[in-house]
Structure of MBL fold metallo-hydrolase:
Amino acid sequence: MAGPPPKPWPTGLVEHPEPLVRRVLAPNPSPYTYTGTQTYLVGDDDRIAVIDPGPDEPDHIAALLSAIGDAEVAAIMCTHTHRDHSPAARSLAEKTGAPIVGCAPLVLDDSGPRADASFDKLYEPDRVLADGEAMTGPGWTLTAVATPGHTSNHLCFALEQSGALFTGDHVMAWSTSVVVPPDGDMSAYMASLEKLYAREDRVYYPAHGPAVERPRQLVRGMIGHRRQRENQIVRLLSENAQSPRELVAVMYKGLDPKLEGAARMSVTAHLIDLERRGMVSRSEDIWQTN
């Protein structure tokens, strides 16, 4: 994971990465959210969609309402329901009258490595988008692209007019996505990466970190990185049976202790995937090759 850029960050300010897209940064920085959650406003001055409204923080809600101005909000669209992405949808819907549209609800006890990634148990969409379904407005169309893996309900949204893809947490330039079992699934995540690699999107706008200007190149590298990790796990287990914690100690030299839990969950996700493919097995928390 890359460190955040030097402050000041543009928290609460409106940025304009391209004509149909505005971006507002929420005040929730952390080792897992980079400088914070980026909420995107898509459309013109008359009718817009809001993507990933973020945490339900009063300052962030106020910044979003200021950015929205007199525009009609056609939809509040969520890529997934981790608490750094969807909770503000409720407050924004109350203030604008807009429907909540996008990913399906998902309520689980997340054993993940960070508190801000637990699921938003109060998320109630007015409409769930299936893969390929779209929301439209004057001069814009946002099409859902199902990308399970980080979470089982994760969606990306493609802006058909410009070739931009809003990738939520699925693909980010500053870090690989954390895949946390039991809902996070490495096999599904890899399949979703392959799905995006087959597309011709011009640019990615993730929920955290900078835009991705060469998306297929980044996705190809991410697939290669995950395959290297997988091969490393198999090689280490072929030498001797180990726990995920022991694997992390070897695989992630010099890792910030704050990130150890995320690394352990990622290794566990790889192990579960390898187990399904018959390549490894376990006895309690000790894994070995078959």
Notes: The domain at 225-289 is CATH 1.10.10.10 (Arc Repressor Mutant, subunit A). Helices lie at 58-68, 88-96, 186-197, 215-239, 244-251, 260-276.
